[in-house]
Amino acid sequence: MLRQLPKVSDPNLLVGISTGDDAAVYKLNDDLAIIQTLDFFPPIVDDPFTYGEIAVANSLSDVYAMGGKPLLGLNIVGFPVNLSKDILGEILKGGASKAGEADVIIVGGHTVDDKEPKYGLSVTGVVKPGCQITNAGCKPGDVLVLTKPLGTGIITTAGKQQSVKSDVIREAVRVMNMLNRDASEAMVETGVNACSDITGFGLLGHLRSMIYGSDVGAVINVSTVPVIDGVWDLLDKGIAPGGTRRNLSSVEDITDWHSDVNESTKLLLADAQTSGGLLISVPSVDSTALINALRLRGVETISVVGEVVSKESIEPYRIKVIP
Q: Rounded to two decimals, what is the model's pTM?
């Protein structure tokens, strides 16, 4: 669909839609560029305040993935007119709380009548021109570091079906509520080649954007992929959201699966995440420095999940998944 839109040509537009990034970067002067993004979605948890927190953490993540600092947010709200406004108030309070944690000011927003609640932010951030980190900088020999475990889409779907233990839900909420700020600061300090946050398209879907934009291939090692406790049991029960299954279908044609990788693992790697971690492509020689910087900032999950390879080592623009 995006290919049907007119191409934008502006020397100050440093990042547009061509690389598949989730945010745009526009140069204002030699020292300052703005990052612009937005994200919103329906409730994935029952508690309105928590929903607001997660939605804002998710919206800010696109700026963090660019190596930028978010500054301002505008609320985006869809809400049924016949639903208690107290619920909307709790959603907005949750969003304001998470924005405050990130030192982001919410300066207004817009609300429309909708059959299903939806909430998120339009976010404005800043970065020094030329220092932005995009999808499209992966280099052969890079290692891929992931900063949050997978499985939130599967767990929240199980929650809607009342088929999951409360402690599993609590852990998924805790993971989604974490800002990616510390991980972003660590990668900016270290210097990395590319980054994407892992959200609706799953690990493989976002990695696909990275290898397409970078003209490379990639290998994912399943044994090192972090997973939230309880997810494998849910997959064994056949629980996975429709978006995850569509994600898997969309990457089948570019993925080479080892014969030992089963269907549950495929679904996990395609699971549609909310407020997932950063997938960072860092030169191998700098990977230890990145891992140390992440640890110093208290980032809980630091997993080397794969590597970037040249098109000469793997069929162009493909992902190889090994046990």
A: 0.95
